[in-house]
Every structure is written in structure tokens, then in C-alpha cells.
Amino acid sequence: MAITCPWCGRPIFIGNYITLYTPTDPNYRIPDGAVVYSRNPLRLVGCQRSDCAETGADYCGIWEAPGKVKRIPSAIERVMVTGKPVVMNF
Questions:
Q1: Cα angle vertex 77, ends 74, 80, to 5°?
Q2: How far is it, in rounded angstroms, from Cα 7 to Cα 83?
Q3: pLDDT digits (tens, 9 = 90+) for 42-62
Q4: Residue 78 belongs to what H/E stretch?
Q5: pTM score, whole prediction
Q6: What are the strands, taking DSSP E only, across the chain?
């Protein structure tokens, strides 16, 4: 089961790390095959590719069967909670 990254249009496969970004363009149209994680605020499931995600520190979940996000704290969220450096093992 693959979904479409709403930012680059490439596939996100089961087991891939994901990002949850919010569109900044008020006229943004969600592409076919993209998945909405939440509506308020609007967050879309995006890919982890280095030329698509803003940074690896934004990885905040894994795309799992049967089409759900397994949410994990991102590196940024961990730093905000602890105030200390973190090491992510991807």
C-alpha cells in the first residue's frame, strides 16, 4: 500500500518514515492519493526524502499497514521537551 507525498508526488511505502507538514498556500489543493493526518490544523503525510523534507529532524512517524501513521516524537520535539541534544537512529 503506497500513498502519494503531497509535496513531491512520489510514493510513500509501508515502513517509510514520514513528515507532517501544513500547507502555507491558502489555495493549496490536496493531490489525489495524499493522506490527511489531521484537519485542524491541516497536516498532510509527506515523505522523508532529503530533497523533499525540510530536514531529517522533521521525521515524526512511520507509514504502517493498514494505512495509518505510527506517530513518534521528532528530533525537534525531543529537544524542546528535554532541552538537550538528541541522536536519532534512522
A1: 150
A2: 31
A3: 999 999 998 998 887 788 999
A4: helix 75-82
A5: 0.84
A6: 2-4, 11-13, 17-21, 36-39, 42-46, 61-64, 68-71
